[in-house]
Amino acid sequence: MKKIIPSLLFCMMFCRAYAASIDVDTPKTITAEKIEYDVKSETIKTSGETEIVNASGQRMTLTDSYLSKDGSSLSGDDIKLWLGNHVYIESDNITREGDETVALKATFTACDNCDAYGDAWKISTRKIVHDMESRMLRFYNPVLWTYNIPVFWLPFFEMPDPGIKHKTGFLTPDFESTNNMGTQINIPFYISISDTHDMTITTSYLTQENPLFQVEHRLNMPHSEYRTSGAFTRNKEGENRWYIFNNDVIELGEYARATVFLERASDKTFLQKYGFYDDQPYLDSGATLELFGQSGYVVADAHIFQELRSTSGFYSAPTGNILPNIRGIYQTAPIYKETYATFSADVLGIVGSTTSSQRLSGDARIVSPWTIWGGNRITASLSTRYDVYNFDNTEMINKQTFSGLKNRFLPSGYLEWGLPLFKPTDTWTQVIEPKARLTVMRHLDEDQFALNNDSAGAFLSDTTLFSDNRFAGLDLWENGTYADYGVRWAAFNPDGQNFELFLGQTYDFKDRESTDPNSGFHNGASDYVGRIEYNNMKWLDVTSRFRLSETDLSLRHVETTGVIGNSRNFINIGHIWSQQFIDAYTEDDSINEMTAGFGLQLTNRWSLRFNAIYNMTYGQFQRHTGGLFYTHPCYYLSVEYRHDNAIKDDYVGTTTFQFRFGMSIDGQRY
Q1: Residue 324: is the preceding peptide bond cis (ω within 30°)?
Q2: Is the pLDDT score of 315 beyond 50?
């Protein structure tokens, strides 16, 4: 008859004889067919099947066991030492002396009952030594088996036991192959400094290029986190090539936060050539300080940029470093009903190689929304802004350079009307809402100010209608009075399906001195802009934005994105087409680009992913990537490739293949 004996006395005896991660103060339960306790020697002997279980659920199963007086020695037969939910060491004989547990002719696996047709992997070995002081498992003459097939042998191997969350040592290597640098073997070495502080150093060997060294550093503190990554190589041409990225976030109490960020590379193509590039046009370094309040917000930031594009300085791409930019906004409580006021200030300094400018802007605005008879919604707003500029050798809109002070007073206001009309039914609810806004601004007779400060021109779309500022920044001013008008129709049902359609236009009452022929704005009536959306909340989500010519309704611009499927099986598509003009009458090459991808869950564990960007104007892929992924409870592997056709300086498009494999032990990846 089996006996169950829970006792604090046994805790004192077994705490060291059990697995390395057991708390010495945790009560234990012993279950055996027969238990003998020697009062004189204070030892326990069990006969038959024996199980020792602690409060956390960890256990040891064995036959005919013996435990010494102080728990420092344990022996038994047919022993399984469980180190996790699916992790155990099985041996014909396990002995315990001091801090070391020795298992002879043992098997180790982390895949107990993970597959119905066998363990995904296991390691058989002549001897396993578990050192509880170092928390390491040492394997002598181990053989790796996959589904009972021997696949790999080593004379010696060691690893941390599953109770260790962080342990210094080598991680699983991965392999890459590129058409311009050959095969690349990445060997990562993990360094555990504390539970919240670690780093990974990776040495990459390349068959056609010199070695590459990478580092990742991570530190978490109670109110801050620090992240740093970088890479360095001295290539065969004798050039030092590198990058360093850093991002630190520091909480300064409940109402303040600071961020310090650094992005720098040795040259324009290093990130792209070595696979660290993510289509970023420039690198941004600087710092940000944010102050929060119930009704206000202040942010101060500085940015130093490193250009990665082959050319820069166009009208649509402002240049220069931002040193500094300080923005603050405060909104009052309702003054009367829903009427409120906002006050904002903006300080901007831009420094180039031979030029600089500073701007101080102050803005005050009052907004008064009303709902009147018949459901009509009226919103009135008045605002005033005052700008003071200090220019030093700065290029102006008229292409002339200027040094000195300039200022301007910019009052404006708008009156907006909308009338949402509802038609509810049991199946579909429809909404149609006509909307119009008249914006009145001061018209400036003189030219606008600087060419390449914070404004990047205007581009007409459905998102720029009914906005206070149709430009990307504050330097350029709308310079007149205009009206926005459009109509929105929407329909939705209880199943979550919804349609939406919008069509609108803007009308400028003042002629512009110069108009970008690709912007969609004209003197007088603009092009028409619209949006179509459909989402059934199950397997289809499509949005399309478009622009039609004001004269003949021909298509000038269209952007479409869509997702068909769910998170496991899906197709995502994207397309952009835009007719381009050199001037109002001369056509240029149209922008015509498509993105597409899919995800296919072949089985519960196998999946396939693919993404591509195709330039239809020039008939070639810009980039495509894909991969085959296998995720198992006990291990993972992937085979991926990427190819791009970019040509920039010394970089010519590459094809890269990458293979990754790793083990998962009790939910942790190795």
Answers
A1: yes
A2: no
pTM, entire model: 0.77
Contact 521, 460 (CB under 8 A): yes
**pLDDT tens-place string over residues 226-283:** 999 999 999 999 999 999 999 999 999 889 999 999 999 999 889 988 888 777 888 9
Q: How far apart are CA 21 and CA 160, in angstroms?
A: 11
Q: Residue 506 corresponds to which tokens in the numbers above?
A: 């803007």
Closest to 481 measured CA to CA, from 438, 538, 444, 450 = 438
**Contact at 8 Å (CB) between 662 and 651?**
no
Determine the 3-state secondary structure of 58 from DSSP: coil
Q: What is the mean predicted confidence (pLDDT) over 605-615?
A: 95
What lies within 8 Å, CB to CB, of 406 at 6+ separation is 388, 389, 391, 449
Burial of 282 (0-12, 13-18, 19+ CB in 10 A): middle
Spatial distance between the Cα atoms of 284 and 278, rounded to a whole number of angstroms: 14
What residues form DSSP beta bridges with 626? 610, 641
The sign of the dihedral angle between the CA atoms of 479, 483, 489, 492 is positive
Triad 31, 37, 40: Cα angle to 5°: 160
CB atoms within 10 A of CB 638: 17
Q: Model confidence over 463-520: pLDDT tens digits?
A: 889 988 887 778 877 778 899 999 999 999 998 899 999 999 999 998 876 778 888 9
How many angstroms separate the first and last alpha carbons of the chain? Answer: 44
Give the whole-angstrom CA distance, residue 324 versus residue 304. 10
Cα 462 to the center of its chain, rounded Å: 28
